[in-house]
UniProtKB/TrEMBL annotation:
Its EC number is 1.1.1.40. This is NADP-dependent malic enzyme. Keywords: Metal-binding, Oxidoreductase. Residues 1-22 are annotated as: Disordered. InterPro entries: Aminoacid_DH-like_N_sf, Malate_Decarboxylase, Malic_N_dom, Malic_N_dom_sf, Malic_NAD-bd, Malic_NAD-bd_bact_type, NAD(P)-bd_dom_sf. It catalyses: oxaloacetate + H(+) = pyruvate + CO2; (S)-malate + NADP(+) = pyruvate + CO2 + NADPH. Its cofactor is Mn(2+); Mg(2+). The keyword Metal-binding applies.
């Protein structure tokens, strides 16, 4: 286990409450339920032999029928090999299972997408690729999760090329989409622009690389970015740089995170607990934007940051602080839209559509009375905002159709909006008193 991190705001009681939540009234957070009645012999002859055989024959004659006669078209695999679980590191697939179960619960709770968590004892990228590719008959989409860099890059790229269903590495692109929206809104609040700011990104793993690419596509200048990893600033003089980091090396004499941060406008942390000290924060430009996104222990705690300066705009990945910059704001809805139009791939256009829809939703009126207005402590929608399910899948579905990857284009977007509204009503009405879906 990792030693107790300095940026842990958790009390022993909160830790125990989390373990109890996972343990009772039955182990884990998920179960499988049937969607068809099997009460009589007639039901049995439809669900099983002989009726099931007719469904098999229909699919053998026309594979597209699989998405209509089985749950495949609404089923996503949440796949990990446990090599980069949250900010906890390579704790293995078994210890990563609570996260994958959790992601599956969120798919269902927020977007009605069924998801199975698949933890694979497969560190070798080739082996992992072969196993996941072989699962295509089962699933309508693949959400790769908590797989370490640099292997995650080739794993995602190869699978996306090999499979005819959407493959999406959540830690890269889900995080990048939410960060893109949060930074757009934060810049608007402080009157700065992507083109004018300087950023320091700490942690150039899966999420770091994807976030930098996303922010550059939104207008951040590559020469205004300094990337920092465990060995310090990534500069052109560094020997043995991993190829995934080479494009981010700069010709600079800055060597440490502290050097890099002087005068910077944006700190993006995707590293580990406590890497940003109050002294470093003090040297940043006016109205600094600090996204301390390591989970569950951020690079700096909100209380520590505020003790140093009151002009900071701060986000973390956690649900217990304001501005939760977490990929939960993206992956359920991105897959909802992608599955609904039978998208074969996730395109850049679909990702940008998500960024724009998220940023715009945050600027709307609060989703419930008493919720904070758009502002420094409300940069990004609240993960419980039900409008996420109404806005994001529509944006994604449209982009998939524009990009020509939709195998079942939506004929009438207004009808699709109504379908999402009734799904939303079902999901919210289905919330049992104890909160299960
Ligand atoms: O699980 C979360 O809260 C966000 C995430 O993907 C990660 O930290 O790896
Ligand atoms: Mg993750």
């Amino acid at each position: 286990m990792t030693s107790k991190p300095s940026a842990d705001a958790t009390t022993p009681e909160q830790r125990q409450a989390a373990l109890d939540y996972h343990r009772w009234p039955q182990p884990g957070k998920l179960e499988v339920t049937a969607t068809k009645r099997v009460a009589t012999r007639e039901d049995l002859s439809l669900a099983y032999s002989p009726g099931v055989g007719y469904a098999c024959e229909a699919i053998a004659a026309d594979p597209a029928q699989a998405d209509l006669l089985t749950s495949r078209g609404n089923l996503v695999a949440v796949v990990t090999n446990g090599t980069a679980v949250l900010g906890l590191g390579d704790i293995g697939p078994l210890a990563g299972k609570p996260v994958m179960e959790g992601k599956s619960v969120l798919f269902k709770r927020f977007a009605g997408v069924d998801a199975f968590d698949i933890e694979l004892d497969a560190k070798d990228p080739e082996r992992l690729i072969d196993i996941v590719a072989a699962m295509e008959p089962t699933f309508g989409g693949i959400n790769l999760e908590d797989i370490k860099a640099p292997e995650c890059f080739v794993i995602e790229k190869t699978l996306a090329g090999r499979m005819g269903i959407p493959v999406f590495h959540d830690d890269q692109h889900g995080t990048a989409i939410v960060v893109g929206a949060a930074v757009s809104n934060a810049l608007e609040l402080v009157g700065k622009s992507f083109e004018s700011i300087r950023m320091v990104v700490c942690g150039m793993g899966a999420a770091g690389v994807a976030c930098v690419d996303m922010l550059v596509s939104l207008g951040l200048k590559p020469e205004n970015i300094l990337a920092v990893d465990r060995s310090g600033v990534i500069h052109t003089g560094r020997a043995n740089l991993d190829p995934s980091k080479q494009a981010y090396a700069r010709d600079t004499d800055k060597r440490s995170l502290a050097d890099a941060l002087h005068g910077a406008d944006l700190f993006l942390g995707l590293s580990g607990p406590g890497t940003l000290s109050g002294d470093m924060l003090a040297t940043m430009a006016a109205d600094p934007i600090v996204l301390a996104l390591a989970n569950p222990y951020p690079e700096i705690l909100p209380s520590e940051a505020r003790a140093v300066r009151d002009d900071v705009i701060l986000g973390t990945g956690r649900s217990d602080f304001p501005n939760q910059i977490n990929n939960v704001l993206c992956f359920p809805y991105l897959f909802r839209g992608a599955l609904d139009v039978g998208a074969r791939h996730i395109t850049t256009g679909m990702k940008i559509a998500c960024v724009e829809a998220l940023a715009a939703l945050a600027r709307q009126a609060p989703f419930q009375p008493g919720a904070p207005e758009f502002g420094r402590d409300s940069l990004i929608p609240n993960p419980l905002d039900p409008r996420l399910l109404l806005e994001l899948p529509v944006a994604v579905a449209k982009a998939a159709m524009d990009d020509g990857v939709a195998s079942r284009p939506v004929a009438d977007m207004n009808v699709y909006r109504q379908c999402l509204a009734s799904l939303s009503a079902r999901l919210n009405a289905g919330l049992a008193e104890d909160g299960t879906v």
